[in-house]
Amino acid sequence: MTRHLILMRHAKSDWGSAGQRDHDRPLNARGRASAKALGKWLQARKLLPDEILCSSAKRTQETCSLLGLSTPPTLLKSLYLAEAQEMLAVLQGATGKTVLMIGHNPGIAEFAEDLVAEPPDHERFGDYPTGATLLLRFEIADWAELRSCTAEVEAFVIPRDLI
């Protein structure tokens, strides 16, 4: 059986409010436009999630909302600034066939690198900039079977590629 993972870093956040807690930072105008573009890109590919696992941070929630998807997200504090191993543990408990996971760097970049059998041919994959989105395919029956270096890359895009 095939499972798909959409691994997305939140869009560009706003650093304009001095003293604001990191967890509470919203997206800036560029980030909002990027999230909308990423949503249109996902919808055009017809690879829509039946489960969304999203960090509880404001910027990840706002990114998720602006994608325009009908699936309600599961908000997880454990994904806020999570390292790759924590992201793996969360994903191994997923139940959807196509899962969207929205998180933060550096953990999401490390997680992406750990999952792929062969990295995509894109100059920005290594630093996984804001809005970076990776579409992966796994030949597994259940997310609990997920292992490192087993994903086939279907696509990798950053907002700059779309806007």
Automatic annotation (TrEMBL):
Domain of life from the UniProt record: Bacteria
Pfam families in the cross-refs: His_Phos_1
Binding residues for substrate: 59
Gene3D superfamilies tied to this protein: Phosphoglycerate mutase-like
UniProt KW keywords: Isomerase
Keyword Methyltransferase recorded: no
PANTHER family: OS09G0287300 PROTEIN (PTHR47623:SF1)
Protein name: 2,3-bisphosphoglycerate-dependent phosphoglycerate mutase
